[in-house]
Amino acid sequence: MTVVLSVEPTVSAPALRLRPWRGEDAVALVAAHRDPLLRRWLTTSLVREADARRWIDDQNDGWTAGVRFSVVKGGVDPTDASAEVGYWVSAEARGRGIAPRALEAVSAWALGSQCMMPLARLDLLHAVDNHASCRVAEKCRYGLHSVLPAQPPAFPTEGHLHVRTNTAAESVSVE
């Protein structure tokens, strides 16, 4: 099953289509990973097209296996099931409100009435000094839950854990 989420345009930004990664995205993925600001926050650095294709294959394999849409923490009890959500925006698209619009669409879908996997909560983690990600999380109603200790080498600085719970039915256009 493939899920494509559509986000309506705004006065200042175009419509968005959120879809799974494809092999032809590898070149753009490597180009985005050349950005030093983006690399500062990522735990993975994709330098070559072959690396990007492997990463895309891993994402798609995880989706097929039912573990890449989300890493489920909890049992089959829908009141306990949670997942982690993350995002990044390439340098040329930053500052146009894309991250909050995309995060809102994914959050509404994941916490809404989609039948794939009922979730009670979404966790969002970012480095404490990633102020842009903190603003996006707050804008999308992810409350600051706790400050997490650094875990070098993968996470060299403290982190913020933001949480959004499924408190009401949410809806989004899904194709």
From TrEMBL:
Every copy of the N-acetyltransferase domain together lies at: 16-175
List the Pfam families.
Acetyltransf_3
Task: Show the InterPro entries listed in the entry.
Answer: Acyl_CoA_acyltransferase, GNAT_dom, Ribosomal_N-acetyltransferase
Instruction: Report what the protein is called.
Output: RimJ/RimL family protein N-acetyltransferase
The species this protein belongs to is Nonomuraea angiospora
